[in-house]
Design brief:
Elements lengths: L14 H7 L1 H4 L6 E5 L5 H9 L7 E5 L11 H12 L5 E4 L3 H5 L7 E4 L14 H11 L16
Parallel strand pairs: 1-2, 1-4, 2-3
Keywords: Methyltransferase, Transferase
Organism: Rhizophagus clarus
Protein name: Class I SAM-dependent methyltransferase
Length: 155
């Protein structure tokens, strides 16, 4: 792991589930594609880069609006520095689009990570992730396999 900077430790609780669910990918040297939506400071992204990306042709696509919901915190800058620190920044594509538009970027067999399901930082309910994630899962049911059955993660 690189010399990363994280101000929050939200991701750590997810690591045991991710390790169990994604264990098969960790053991392979195959090219994989991962799509992460909602990256914050990049803790999950660098975990994917460090733990899963054994093949240099693997690709991580990250999507975030980078709306600063925390006062005095430029987490886009922190995210970009952490990705650079991983040494695999050439394998990361950063996109500022929404979840449905992102679906087209994911190749068959790829993994899409939806996080922050329980966030309720915005007064308007429609600005919080839950509605978008629920709607997306309903629209694409039958085309999605949920690897982690936990409301805190949708993979």
């Amino acid at each position: 792991m690189g010399n990363y900077k994280f101000t929050k430790k939200w991701f750590e609780r997810h690591i045991p589930r991710w390790e169990k669910t994604l264990d098969g990918l960790k053991k392979k040297n195959e090219k994989i594609s991962v799509l992460e939506i909602g990256v914050f400071e990049g803790r999950a992204a660098v975990w994917v880069l460090d733990e899963l990306f054994k093949n240099p042709e693997s690709k991580l696509i990250t999507i975030d609006t980078f709306k600063n919901i925390f006062v005095n915190n430029d987490y886009e800058s922190t995210f970009r520095k952490n990705i650079k620190e991983s040494g695999k920044e050439n394998q990361v594509e950063i996109i500022k689009k929404g979840i449905v538009l992102s679906w087209n970027l994911l190749k068959e067999g790829g993994i899409m990570i939806l996080d922050n399901y329980e966030w309720d930082y915005f007064e308007e309910e429609f600005n919080n992730p839950r509605i978008a994630i629920d709607s997306f899962l309903k629209i694409y049911q039958g085309r999605i396999k949920n690897l982690i059955k936990d409301v805190r993660d949708h993979v």
